[in-house]
Amino acid sequence: MAEILQRLPVKNTNGSIDLIEIDAIFYLEAKEGDTLIRTKRKNPYRSVQRMHELAKRLPAPAFVQCHREYIVNLNRVRAITPRNNRDYDLRLDPPVNHRIPISRNRLSNIHKILGL
Fold it and tell me: How far is CA 60 from the centre of its chain?
């Protein structure tokens, strides 16, 4: 039986390849044609690979697309908080503490994964 890789190889904008611990990833964000990979580092990793390409290498259901621009690690989510009467955000653990929007059409899938 093959061992599961615990690091995500990411092609950097300068041509190098970063090996990022999968458990350290809080979220991925599609931005300006690149993908930002946020860990607890101050600056995110920037990859030239598309977000959907990287997502294929991440374990489901821990990593879920919550918005067209975001894939989050549900193991790094502290709370689901209302933004207004119909919209919700995922609040991430410290030290990142970001609020990631949840698309209305993806909320039921997140509830299903979490058993809500």
Answer: 11
Distance separating alpha carbons of residues 63 and 12, to the nearest angstrom: 21
3-state secondary structure of 112: helix
**Options 3.40.190.150, 3.50.30.10, 3.40.50.300, 2.40.50.1020; CATH of 7-114:** 2.40.50.1020
pTM reported for the whole predicted model = 0.89
| Paired tokens of 39 | 């860990």
Could you tell me the CA-to-CA distances from 46 to 2, 4, 36, 59, 113 in Å, in that order? 29, 24, 5, 20, 28
pLDDT of the chain, 116 residues: tens digit per residue:
445 678 999 998 888 999 999 999 999 999 998 999 999 998 999 999 999 999 999 998 999 999 999 999 999 999 999 988 889 999 999 999 899 999 999 999 999 999 88
φ/ψ bin of 101: left (φ > 0), alpha (ψ from -120 to 50), beta (otherwise): beta
Residue spans per domain, the chain: 7-114
